[in-house]
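Retro notes - structure team

What went well: the batch runner handled both jobs without manual restarts.
What didn't: labels got mixed up in the shared folder, which is why I'm recording both outputs here explicitly, each with its sequence directly above its tokens.

Job 1
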Amino acid sequence: MTHVESALANFSPFVDDGVCITLPDLTIENASDKVSITHHGEVLDITRDKDGLKHARTLVDEMTGAADEASAAIHTIAAACLISLQNDAECIPDKIKIKPTIELPGDPFS
């Protein structure tokens, strides 16, 4: 199992704030309120709510049978999100408020 396959296999969505998986042309950021997938500069967010459940379903359908590594990774992440959201479907809200990203001012080492 490669490093990439291992990272994807052990991915638990909506659990680890700040956990990031970086692959060529693809970055996956995990937070308690959303999973962000950045591919070629485009950001896809799967939120931990009913909208995110719909989005995860759509991504899984669209990426099924994907041939390239990035699309297969997006399918794997979306499928993990879908399973998590389906398991919590009774208690997830219709829409959540996303926590703001904290940006630190300037370079702390300059």
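Job 2
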Amino acid sequence: MGNTDSLFSLMEARDPTLLVWKLYLRAVCAHCERNSLLNSLYAIQLRTRDHVRAAITCVLFYLKDVHTYVQLNEKSYHLINARAHLKDYRTEKTSKTAILIIATYLYCQLPITILFTILGQTKIIFR
């Protein structure tokens, strides 16, 4: 990938959330996908913490240049990586929901059952 680490450092110095660069990053990712630059695409997705798209890229790694079932079996670690990315997404999403519930509870002092009803949560797991 070359100097992407230094480029991302400069981008994050300007905007740590990378929202300013969202349009440009989207265009770079589209270019990488169109031209089958999967390693570059994957590196960007990891850096931007885009877990779902990183999982999809892992599936593309798994399916790329495969002609036999033996080759599929040899590349199965890509599916394990994809599953790990989806677990990371779920963990991040769950923790954000839990933080929202706790913040709302502390701010409003509503009973926790009312908060679950308001937020439409039927099951929250705190670990």
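One thing worth noting from job 2: DSSP finds seven helices and no strands in the chain.
We'll revisit the folder naming next retro.
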